[in-house]
Design brief:
2 domains, 33% helix, Gfo/Idh/MocA-like_OxRdtase_N, six-stranded parallel sheet, globular, Oxidoreductase, single chain, Dihydrodipicolinate Reductase, domain 2, 371 residues, NAD(P)-bd_dom_sf, nucleotide binding, GFO_IDH_MocA-like_dom, ten-stranded mixed sheet, Rossmann fold, 18 strands, alpha/beta
Length: 371
């Protein structure tokens, strides 16, 4: 009798070939994420910088195997072996280089903040749409399994009810060198300052909590802190919805490290204290209270809040790249279309950010949120 045939293993998909456009520090984190992915997902085909020497040094220091180096951004975009571009350049450079990448048919993973204003972002998104390429911004925590678990709880009407209030706080205590020299405090490079850098996370977390329903209006808090060049170092705002929901946020380069989000529903509450960068990259926790009441005579709580802890084999930045690559492979290999939810979410974040800036410019008067 003949022995049974060995099972035929499905061939791995062709990995998405990435080009990294710029050698910013954040690009090292994404490069590490690319190296952590399983076979058949993604690979770094090339790195481009303003000098080939800098690109070669980046490749050597990050351990990228066999990545080609380019001494200009234009050269990388002309590389036929690059299918997708990760773009971590300063925000002021996003429009020309993101549009150039899209025009050459490169799928676009764009570092946040994605643009200085919604009009600039619209130009980028229009270029991606015209070329049929996938767009995604790099809000990494969205891809963490913890985020999906929190969404599941918020969506449970019995456990959580309806979201009524959200508060988000993102900050870190920047060094004197950062406050003098970092691109995030330079008006010609990243003019949005703290609002674009970590205020972006605050706004995204609020929108995520309300299932991306845009507020009607925003009022910025008075007396934001700016540097001598007029770039924001600390600010905050309150968001208002027609049904009475409210949200507040604060972001700062001047206070201790915090990535806190609290979401208050009619039946429940969620607290997470390390949303943007978890305390440990392969686990994440958050606390949930539901249908809380007092132990009479007002001496305690019943039931007590519960701690949820989740685990992941890959850190959130690797999961982000994995999901982006899956979408690109679907377009490339299965004649799929770009996933539209990602540019939609990005644009909603951007228009709220614009409204905060508008309220500051109007002397802290209410600013309507454009649809």
């Amino acid at each position: 009798m003949s022995s049974p045939a060995a099972p035929v293993q499905a061939a791995l998909p062709r990995p998405v070939r990435f080009g990294i456009l710029g050698c910013a520090d954040i690009a090292r984190k994404v490069s590490r994420a690319l190296l952590m992915l399983p076979p058949g997902v993604a690979t770094v085909a090339a790195v481009g910088s303003r000098s080939e020497e800098k690109a070669r040094r980046f490749v050597a220091e990050t351990g990228l195997p066999a990545a080609r180096t380019h001494g200009s951004y234009e050269s990388l975009l002309c590389d036929p072996g690059v299918e997708a571009v990760y773009l971590p350049l300063p925000t002021s450079l996003h429009v020309p280089w993101a549009m150039a990448a899209a025009a050459r048919g490169k799928h676009l993973l764009l570092e946040k903040p994605t643009a200085l204003c919604a009009a600039d972002l619209d130009a980028i998104l229009a270029a991606c749409d015209a070329s049929g390429v996938q767009f995604m911004d790099t809000t990494m925590w969205i891809h963490n399994p913890r985020t999906a678990k929190m969404r599941e709880i918020i969506g449970d009407k019995d456990t959580f009810g309806d979201v009524r209030v959200v508060h988000s706080m993102c900050s870190f205590r920047a060094s004197d060198d950062f406050l003098q020299n970092d691109i995030r405090v330079k008006p010609d490079l990243d003019a949005l300052g703290v609002l674009g850098d970590i205020g972006w996370y605050c706004i995204r977390s609020i929108l995520w909590a309300v299932d991306y329903e845009l507020p009607e209006a925003v009022i910025a808090q008075r007396h934001p802190v700016k540097n001598q060049a007029g770039v924001l170092l600390a600010c905050g705002a309150t968001l208002y919805w027609a049904d009475g929901k409210t949200a507040t946020f604060n972001c700062s380069f001047l206070t201790n490290l915090a990535f806190d989000v609290s979401i208050y529903g009619t039946n429940g509450t969620i607290h997470v204290t390390d949303l943007v960068i978890p305390y440990e990259e392969k686990s994440g926790e958050f606390n949930v209270a539901s249908k809380s009441n007092f132990v009479k005579p007002t001496i305690g709580w019943d039931p007590l809040p519960r701690k949820h802890v989740g685990f992941t084999d890959l850190p959130q930045e690797a999961l982000m790249v994995q999901e982006f690559s899956r979408l690109v492979q679907n377009i490339r290999d299965a004649e799929g279309r770009p996933e539209g939810k990602w540019p939609t979410i990005t644009r909603k974040t951007q228009v709220v950010l614009d409204a905060v800036n508008a309220s500051i410019d109007k002397g802290y008067e209410p600013a309507e949120v454009a649809g």
